[in-house]
Amino acid sequence: MKKTLGAMALLGASALVLAGCTAGSSESAEIRVWLAGTDTPQAARDYLVETFEADNPGSTLVIEEQSWDGLVDKLTTSLSSSDSPDIVEFGNTQAAAFTSVGALLDLTDEYEALGGDDLLPGFVEAGSYDGQFFAPPLYSGARVVFADPALVTAAPATLDEYVTSAKALAAANPGKSGIYFAGQDWYNALPFIWENGGEIAVPDGDSWDARLSSDASVAGLLQVQDLMMNASLAPKDGDNAEPWTPYCENQAVQFSAPNWALGLASACETATPPAAPFVYALPGMDGGAAQVFAGGSNIGISAQSANPDLAKSALAIILSDEFQTIYGENGLIPAKKSLASTLGDTPEAVAFTEAASNAKLTPASPNWAEVEASRVLEDFFVQIALGGDVAALATEVDTQIESILNG
Fold first, then answer.
1. Strand (E) positions, 262-359?
2. 148/18 Cα distance (integer angstroms)
C-alpha cells in the first residue's frame, strides 16, 4: 500500500455512508452484485438486499452468484461491456488483473469511509495499484489444520514435527491419509516454501524473478513431496476442492483448508461421521504459526457501472460492521481488524486468529491471475506428487512463471 493511503486516518464507527454519496442520492435503478461461490452466508445476502432497498427507495439490488471456475475470463469480458455488473467479487490473488487495467472505479477518496486502516492490510495492498485504491477486502479465510480428535489431541510444535506426525498417522491408520494432500493443491504447499525461506517470485527492477528453484524453495518442496507420497492417499492428480469429504468419510485423519470449512467438517452427513475436528494453526519452522496463504476476496465497483453512486451505497453496506459481523459469526474472517472478536473465543477461533496473523499473499503482479489461469502450478505439483525430480521441475516451472509475469 502506498503512503498516500497508509497515512489516512480511520473514520469513526458512525461513518457508514461514503463521502459524496447519501442514501437515495441517485435515480432509482437496479444494482447487480456478482458474488463468487457460496461463501457469503444467506443471512449476509439478505441483509445487503434489505438494507440497500430500504436506504434507496425505488431501487433494487440483485445478487448474481458466479462460479469460481473461469471467473477471471468472465470478469474480463463483463467488466468491459455495456452490460457490466455494478459490483464484483474476485479472489485476492486475482485483484491485480483488474486494478491495473482501469476495469474498476477508483475508490481512493472513499478509503477512509470504507474502513481505512481498519481494513485487512494485505488485502488493501492487493486491491490497490499505482497509489490508488480500487478494491477493499470482502473477507479472508486463513488455512488451518482440521484433525480427528480421536487421533490428534495436540498440535505439533514445528513444521518438521507436523511432517513426521502426518506420516506416522498414515502408517498407524491403514486406509487413511495422515494429511489429505491432493496433487494439485498448491495453496497448501506455499507455507512449506515460505517457511524454508523461499518465494514463488520476487520483483527484480521492472521484471519478476521466479524463485521456486532456489535452494530454500526446493527444501520446502521436498517436504511437500514427502507428505504427498508418504502421508496422503489423495489422488496425485486431484484437486483440493472438498477436502472435508474424505474426513467425513473416515478416509483422512487430517486436512488443511480455509477456516470456514469448520462447519462442513463438524456436521458430516455420513453414516458414521467422525467427531467435530480438533483445529490448530499450521506450525512454522521454529514454532508459532506458519506463513499460510491468505485466501479470501476483494470487491470492487465496475468502472462501467451506470449507477456509481448507488453502487457506492451498496458497497458501504457490504463494508459495514453489521454485514461484516455476519461473516465473523459464520467463521469467515471479516474485512476489518476490529471485528476479529466476532469469530468468538473458542479454541477454533483462536487457531483462526493465529493463522490469519501470519498469512501471506501471492506475488502482487498484474499478470498473476494469468499464472493461475494457466494452471502451471497445478501441473507442477502433480508431477511432484508423482515423485518427479523436484529441482528439475522447479527450474522448468520458474521459466514458465517468468514468461507469464514478464510477458
1. 278-280, 294-301, 333-334
2. 46
Task: Enumerate residues 6+ apart whose C-beta is below 8 A from 151.
Answer: 169, 173, 253
Query: How does DSSP assign 27-43, residue by residue?
Result: ---EEEEEEETT-S-HH
E-strand ranges in 104-162 read 128-129, 132-133, 137-147
Q: Buried b vs exposed e over 365-382: b needs ≥16 C-beta within 10 Å?
A: bebbbbbbbeebbbbbbb
Beta-carbon contacts of 300 under 8 Å, excluding residues fewer than 6 positions away, are 87, 88, 90, 98, 99, 104, 105, 107, 127, 134, 135, 136
pLDDT for 27 = 77
> pLDDT tens for residues 331-377?
899 999 999 999 999 999 999 989 987 888 899 898 998 999 899 99
Q: Is the dihedral of CA 254, 251, 375, 392 positive or negative?
A: positive
Task: Answer whether 353's CB lies under 8 Å from 117's CB.
Answer: no
Instruction: Provide the grid cell at 350.
Output: 483462536
Which parts of the chain sit beneath pLDDT 70?
1-26
Q: How many CA atoms lie within 13 A of 243 on its CB side?
A: 33
b/e map 230-240, b = 16+ CB within 10 Å: ebbbbebebeb
Length of the chain in residues, anyone? Answer: 407
Strands of 288-399, DSSP E = 294-301, 333-334
Q: What single-letter amino acid sits at 103?
A: A
CA proximity to 157, closest of 292, 287, 278, 279: 287
Instruction: Map grid coordinates 474426513 to a residue.
Output: 247
Beta bridge partners of 145: 256, 280
Per-residue model confidence (pLDDT) at position 69: 87
CA distance 378 to 380: 5
Position 141: which residue type?
A: G
Relative to beta strand 30-36, strand 60-66 is: parallel
What DSSP string runs through 278-295?
EEEPPB-TTSSB---BEE
pLDDT at 5: 33
In the numeric block, the cell 491432493 is attached to: 182
Q: Please count the other Cβ atoms lying within 10 Å of the Cβ belonging to residue 26.
A: 19
- The answer to whether residues 405 and 365 touch, using CB atoms and an 8 Å cutoff, is yes
Q: Give the Cα separation of 184 and 104 in Å (integer).
A: 31
